[in-house]
Amino acid sequence: MLSIRDLAVSFQTRRGAVNAVRGVSFDVATGEVLGIVGESGSGKSVTSYALMRILDAGGAITAGDVSYSGLDLRRASEADMRDIRGREISMIFQNPRAALNPIRKVGHQIEDVLRRHAKATRQDARQKAIAALEAVRITDAEARYDAYPFELSGGMCQRVVIAIALACDPRLLIADEPTTGLDITTQKAVMELVSALIRARGMGAIVITHDLGLAAQYCDRIVVMKDGQIVETGDPEALFARPRHAYTRKLVDATPRAGESIRSLLPAEIRTPDLPHKVHERPILAVRDLTKTYRGKSGPVHAVRGISFEVKEGQSVGLVGESGCGKSTTSEMLVRLLDPTSGEILFDGQDIAGIPAGRFARNPRRGDIQMVFQDATDSLNPRHSARQTIADPLRRLGGMGGAKLAARVDELADLTGLPRTLLDRFPHQLSGGQKARVGIARAIALNPRFLILDEPTAALDVSIQAVVLNLLADLRAALGMSYLFVSHDLHVVRLLCDHVIVMKGGEIVEQGPAEQVMASPAHPYTQELLSAAPKPPARRLVPAP
Amino acid sequence: MSARLTSVLSRIAQAIPVVIGVVVISFVLTRALPGDPAVYFAGAAADEASIAEVREALGLDKPMLRQFIIYVGDLARGDLGQSISSGRPVAEDLASRLPASLELTLSALLLSCAVAVPLGVLAATRPGSPVDHLCRVLVTAGVSLPTFFTGILLIYVFYYLLGIAPSPLGRLDFIYIEPDHVTGFYLIDAALAGDAETFLGALKQLVLPAITLALFTMAPIARMTRAAMLGALSADFVRTARAAGLTNRTVLYGYAFRNALLPVVTTLGMVFSFTLGANVLVEKVFAWPGIGSYAVEALVVSDYAAVQGFVLAMAFLFVLLNLVIDLAYTLIDPRIGFAAK
Amino acid sequence: MTQVSPDSAERPRSSGALDHLIYVLKANPVTLLAFVMFALIVISALFGPALVPYDPLQSDAANALQAPSAAHWFGTDSLGRDVFSRVIVATRLDLVISVAAVALSFVLGSVLGAVAGYWGGWIDVVLNRILDTIMAFPLFVLAMGIVAAMGNTIENIIYATAIINVPFYARLVRAEVNIRRGAGFALAARLSGNSDLRVLALHIFPNALPPMMVQVSLNLGWAILNAAGLSFIGLGVRPPTPEWGIMVAEGANFIVSGEWWLAVFPGLWLMFAVFTFNLLGDGLRDIVDPRKRT
């Protein structure tokens, strides 16, 4: 149905033309679901924008052919393309809330498309729009017709986007990272819905994603892209069992799955033996009945409702939950950036909950409790070089200066695997992985005893996530730190943690040893979380060296 | 809907402290004006005793707080005091001159919106193109024009050199008869009376000062329109609309422009403030009998009741307008009242 | 996925600020022009009084109201004073007024805005109400009122111009600080043992400077217009001091009789100065606006 041959796309930038896509060829047959997998910058999205001819300004197809049912899409007139978009080929996007016009009722947005492609008249548009909403299983579609996007949840917005895309019965659907940014349970619901709808209508589909596991679960065939080129194509089982290209192998390895160790995420060539870390009986942190209540416009908001748990010296504890479960509020309170409403935080036996967050900077405990932040870009001061950033805590709390300071920064760079030559660079001159290393070096600069990791890999590509997780494991073994690993992903948490806490609605619903929680979750919510995560097919096993 | 109502009410409530602040500032400012009104009222031949008498009569010997309370009481009754120079109540003076200022300001705003909004949209749809650069230079030049100088330049060219424009003296040449007072806007009143000749006469007088003001206000409107349009055009929902095959027209006007309009409406408030300020200068240049030239004359003779009345009137006008803009915004933007924080 | 080019992801970008500056200047010759014009204005402010051919205050009744000529480039006024000399000499005064006013409002606005943006709470509420009140006056009208009330001096023009500009800086800094208050790097700075004041002054505030610089440049132009406007209606600088607003006001009386040069040259030079600052501000906006960095 769709055939792409030797497609090349380039963007005009101030440093000349950048070839975002080079010599890409693939086909999509009627009823087939094709997955395009790649990390950021691989050109996977650009490919789809190019075939829809909706590239950003400065981007253009420079070579190749795109043909859809015998039509030459590269040379079709703009008017013809507009007829094809939405009626023959549709798209859904990531970040569904932003993908909808914020000040137009969702029903009207569906009608716009129906009317544009003459699939509805003024009289029956409303009825057909409601039918489209019902088709994506929105309950009470009649009432949702009049809703604005801001009144709907993220998952609901994505359903509306899907309704818009499918309203005119297109034959090909392109889903561009349709679940990125959604909670894991919503992710599953959205993917199941898309999958069911395209199968039921016998449509072809292209699913673009960075998640190899997700692609494997929902696609018939997978194309792996890197640096604008296709490196490998194959069906999911074969790809996982016998990846031919080194890059595919790296991706397959780095995709977390049940029952494997953190070391197995790394390519076999650089895999090192597992280092044991020692867990003591003595708790370094004990939380008792911790509560945080905000004043909201319509009454108090209970972000955290009286949670209690312990972290033993040397132990790594995972704190898992979806957005809004209170895990971030909890970690901010523990790291003493936020004052709890009530409850105790016993650090090394001493209650630190009562010390106001504003004054904790001068507390001798400050250096003992540190944090690695979620977004490495956001957590580095854009005007400070890597060296200044790492030196900041050493100057302020360590009282260091001069040669001693410089030596310690170099030492920290070595420890976190950051080349010393990069120390004088500014954040915008560093890659995502390098920025993550700077953030970790700053956090461990003062040899903290307790480190909170707030989704430290959420913004990273999987291959870099694998490296960073292993770095954290190495540092734990070398420095004997205790971790509290905050994440939405149970499978990632399990890799690093001995103990897991699951939170929902500000409360702890389940906690226990990691293996036990994973193997036999007691609470229905934990079960739901576990079953929602994509399950990559088995891969060939390479014995650790 | 109730959330919407709450936000409307809270917006109105927000205006209250501002109004109080305006009253306090205007009181303080005018009490600090140089020159003693008592001396002025007492006349040239007055001695110490008669000045003191007048001061007592005017309430100027009382403590400041007491004076302020009296002042607020007078304000509540709509009494802005007596103008020294015209001898009439200030409220009356202002009321008779306000329509002239409003007619000028509003015509200028309409004119500049009519030019600046399309220009901004055009520039945003073709960023980096000659149209964009032209828009930028025009707009920057426009905001750099000192209004009093542009006015003089226009008078020189169109009145002295070309002789097209009427003499720059007021709202209507003396050969015409003022239209019956309905709204106080000569254009509207003349149109209501069906008097085409007077309408044209008034229009002729209005054109130059209105252009002068409009040139100055075009810049912020065009700049904001361009920025808002650029933002909206690069938004995800525009991509969704394009991917759904909607026509360029629908995408541009139905989706991007309507979203871009919201910040533009907000800027209008600021622009209105600039216009009211620039009005003072333009009225002086064109001898326009509005409240701006009234204030300048009052300043020269330290006529504090008149200046105070003018400052208050301007501020109230502006607070009111901002309120209207914000309320309009509430009606346009469905998100107001539902904001998370 | 946004349409990122491959080089933006993992490979570090090697461009410096200078690179970007050169790129912007190349892409935008208008900005380059603005820098040249700015240099011209600074030179006439610094060296103007030493360079002009005539004493700007020296009247010469025999040579009154002369049209522009080789001897008097911009002609002479009703007292026979050389308009060119007066226009150039006035640069320093107008520039001093606007720079001083903008500097004052920059400092005051930054402190108020930063405090309100960082700590929020009642300080923020009170500040916002005060700013609202100032902004409730048409700003030129407020400046008129202040100068009239405090007296007709150059210092008072500076204060008045500064006061009406404070809200712009305070609002801008407040917004910039507020969005960065919860940014990872600010939280990290607190974890590194920085006090709130240090975090605000050394970590957050410097990041708010680029948009402030744009505002400064645009405001300089506006402050000049404001000062000239006040002089035009007879507030502030008094004759015979050479000042653009006064010169235009004096020249206005002669325009209807055809002696155009009296008002036109000071007006044009005033326009030129304001235009320069506005172009500069626009150019700076391009340089600091990260969205323009492709």
From TrEMBL, chain A:
CDD domains the record matches: ABC_NikE_OppD_transporters
One family name in Pfam for this protein: ABC_tran
Topology class, membrane: Peripheral membrane protein
GO molecular function annotation: ATP binding; ATP hydrolysis activity
Xref: PROSITE patterns: ABC_TRANSPORTER_1, ABC_TRANSPORTER_2
Domain ABC transporter: 4-252, 285-530
Family statement drawn from the similarity comment of this UniProt entry: Belongs to the ABC transporter superfamily.
Protein name as annotated: Peptide/nickel transport system ATP-binding protein
Automatic annotation (TrEMBL), chain B:
UniProt topology in membrane: Multi-pass membrane protein
Chief location category: membrane
Top-rank taxon, per record: Bacteria
Keyword rRNA processing: no
Matching InterPro entries: BPD_transp_1_N, MetI-like, MetI-like_sf
A GO MF term: dipeptide transmembrane transporter activity
Any Pfam family: BPD_transp_1
Keyword Oxidoreductase among UniProt keywords: no
Every ABC transmembrane type-1 domain range: 98-329
Family, as annotated: Belongs to the binding-protein-dependent transport system permease family.
Identification of the protein by name: Peptide/nickel transport system permease protein
Taxon lineage: Bacteria, Pseudomonadati, Pseudomonadota, Alphaproteobacteria, Rhodobacterales
From TrEMBL, chain C:
Keyword Thylakoid: no
One Gene Ontology term from the biological process aspect of the record: protein transport
InterPro entries: BP-dependent_transpt_permease, MetI-like, MetI-like_sf, OppC_N
Keywords: Cell membrane, Membrane, Peptide transport, Protein transport, Transmembrane, Transmembrane helix, Transport
Superkingdom in the source lineage: Bacteria
Pfam family, one: OppC_N
GO cellular component term, pick one: plasma membrane
ABC transmembrane type-1 domain mapped to chain residues: 91-281
Localization per Swiss-Prot or TrEMBL: Cell membrane
Chain ranges passing through the membrane: 21-47, 95-118, 130-151, 220-240, 260-281
UniProt topology in membrane: Multi-pass membrane protein
Family the UniProt entry places it in: Belongs to the binding-protein-dependent transport system permease family.
The protein's name in its UniProt record: Peptide/nickel transport system permease protein
